[in-house]
From TrEMBL:
<dbReference type="Pfam" id="PF07992">
    <property type="entry name" value="Pyr_redox_2"/>
</dbReference>
<dbReference type="InterPro" id="IPR049386">
    <property type="entry name" value="FCSD_central"/>
</dbReference>
<feature type="domain" description="Sulfide dehydrogenase [flavocytochrome c] flavoprotein chain central">
    <location>
        <begin position="175"/>
        <end position="288"/>
    </location>
</feature>
<dbReference type="InterPro" id="IPR006311">
    <property type="entry name" value="TAT_signal"/>
</dbReference>
<dbReference type="InterPro" id="IPR019546">
    <property type="entry name" value="TAT_signal_bac_arc"/>
</dbReference>
<protein>
    <submittedName>
        <fullName>Flavocytochrome c sulphide dehydrogenase flavin-binding protein</fullName>
    </submittedName>
</protein>
<dbReference type="InterPro" id="IPR052541">
    <property type="entry name" value="SQRD"/>
</dbReference>
<dbReference type="InterPro" id="IPR016156">
    <property type="entry name" value="FAD/NAD-linked_Rdtase_dimer_sf"/>
</dbReference>
<keyword id="KW-0285">Flavoprotein</keyword>
<dbReference type="InterPro" id="IPR036188">
    <property type="entry name" value="FAD/NAD-bd_sf"/>
</dbReference>
<dbReference type="Pfam" id="PF21706">
    <property type="entry name" value="FCSD_central"/>
</dbReference>
<dbReference type="InterPro" id="IPR037092">
    <property type="entry name" value="FlavoCytC_S_DH_flav-bd_sf"/>
</dbReference>
<dbReference type="GO" id="GO:0016491">
    <property type="term" value="F:oxidoreductase activity"/>
</dbReference>
<dbReference type="InterPro" id="IPR015323">
    <property type="entry name" value="FlavoCytC_S_DH_flav-bd"/>
</dbReference>
<dbReference type="InterPro" id="IPR023753">
    <property type="entry name" value="FAD/NAD-binding_dom"/>
</dbReference>
<dbReference type="GO" id="GO:0050660">
    <property type="term" value="F:flavin adenine dinucleotide binding"/>
</dbReference>
<feature type="domain" description="FAD/NAD(P)-binding">
    <location>
        <begin position="44"/>
        <end position="157"/>
    </location>
</feature>
Length: 433
């Protein structure tokens, strides 16, 4: 099945309609060693990262041109969704609910999945070195996600502190750890959550988490509260809607302190020191400032010294550094691509654009004019939701992605909560099935 130019926008927005790096391998030819694995016989796109961007791109490249060989390199055996992981922390979903198989990509589209880690990149000779061996490519798509700037908080940049003060903005072990600590907390305990400075993954994500932790406390931990130290001067996304929900449902449970940076932590005592004082909470969710995943640095994808994010051209997502390497998702530099949030839906939308543009590039065709979409739902309890949405277009005059329309939900209600649940099911299907 090929995506025509006429259907380009339809596929880009397909998941929205549905709402009403890195083992073993799926491919037996992969073996241990440092030599070339899976020798290339035709046009090939290698994808590094099997998250929201990478998995979507793998599927949509094959939809655009089934003859292109797609090899996806991903460390994890299964896809674990960061969006919706707050529901696990809130106590009404499990990790099983947000963990999905890559088998649909393999069986339905012929995507080859290699569970390995990237070690190095030879962009001149178009070779990606992995822990399983060397993969040759014609084009490489990198969707590595984020990593944390632990060094910005004194005392945090060591394994003991990371375990004591989990960030849980990459779904997995830390998600489970935070959920378990909330369940084990005695009534009357204090939870501390810190919101990092922008830009960071999923702007409304920490505020949804605050709401769901408060909901959990209200139901199961009487006398407890959650204190929020926000590095920003106010709620970054959906502020009035979150504030109204907190006022109506969580008075006396949420204590919100804006413009308050975390200065240091002490894993031996559990103490957290901020600009406005220190505290020893029973449970601490410290979310540091963020940057592109360390893989992007290790592979030499940064074009400017001091950059924390990878610069890429927004029309095609070709990297500034190498014309054979495209970069999408949270790892991209907003100053280069434009003012889009670092969200799962944006990564999904970028992936569909990149899929079309990269296949056209292989065929020697000019890129098409792309559009991009974002919808972000947040639950404020187990049933009620709010949302923000936007449509973006590429502006050739300034070479940036710009918002052309959008808005937020007028209020919170159970219907939007249902839409949030339907959205998750729909977009996972869009990516993986």
């Amino acid at each position: 099945m090929s995506i025509s130019r006429r259907n380009f926008v339809k596929y880009t927005t397909a998941a929205a309609a549905g709402t009403a790096i890195f083992g073993c391998s799926h491919n037996d030819s992969v073996s241990k060693g440092s030599g070339v694995i899976m020798p290339k016989s035709g046009k090939r796109i290698v994808i590094l990262g099997g998250g929201w961007g990478g998995a979507t791109a793998a599927k949509y490249i094959k939809l655009e041109d089934p003859s292109v060989e797609v090899v996806m390199v991903e460390r994890q055996e299964k896809f674990i969704s960061c969006p919706v992981s707050n529901w696990v922390i809130g106590g009404f979903r499990t990790m099983k609910d947000i963990t999905k198989s890559y088998d649909g990509l393999v069986k339905n589209y012929g995507v080859k999945v290699v569970h390995a880690e990237a070690k190095d990149l030879d962009a001149v000779n178009k070779k990606l070195m992995t822990t399983k061996g060397v993969l040759e490519y014609d084009l490489l798509l990198v969707s590595p996600g984020i990593s944390y700037k632990y060094e910005t908080i004194e005392g945090l940049n060591n394994p003991a502190a990371i375990e004591m003060f989990p960030a849980a903005m990459k779904a997995g072990h830390e998600t489970v750890l935070l959920a378990e600590r909330l369940k084990a907390m005695e009534p009357g305990g204090v939870v501390l959550l810190s919101v990092p400075p922008t830009p960071y993954r999923c702007p409304p994500g920490p505020y949804e988490r605050i709401s769901l932790i408060a909901n959990f406390i209200k139901k199961y931990k009487p006398g407890s509260k959650i204190i929020v130290f926000d590095s920003n001067d106010g709620i970054v996304s959906k502020g009035p809607l979150f504030k109204a929900a907190w006022e109506d449902y969580y008075q006396g449970i949420i204590e919100y302190v804006p413009d308050n940076f975390i200065k240091s932590v002490d894993a031996s005592t559990g103490r957290v020191v901020s600009e406005q004082g220190d505290i020893v909470p029973e449970v601490a969710n410290i979310i540091p400032a963020m940057k592109a995943n360390q893989t992007a640095f290790n592979l030499g994808l940064m074009s400017n010294e001091g950059d924390d994010w990878v610069r890429a051209y927004p029309k095609t997502f070709e990297s500034y550094k190498y014309d054979s390497v495209h970069v999408i998702g949270d790892a991209t530099h907003n100053g280069a691509v434009g003012g889009v949030p670092k969200s799962g839906y944006v990564a999904n939308s970028m992936a569909k654009v990149a899929a079309v543009q990269m296949v056209r590039k292989l065929k020697g065709l000019d890129p098409v004019e792309p559009t991009y979409v974002n919808t972000c739902y947040s639950l404020i309890n187990e049933t009620e939701g709010i949302f923000v949405s936007a449509v973006y277009r590429y502006d050739e005059k300034i070479d940036r992605i710009m918002s052309v329309s959008g808005g937020v939900s007028p209020t919170r209600n159970a219907l939007f909560g249902k839409h949030a649940r339907d959205w998750a099911t729909s977009i996972w299907s869009d990516m993986l099935l």
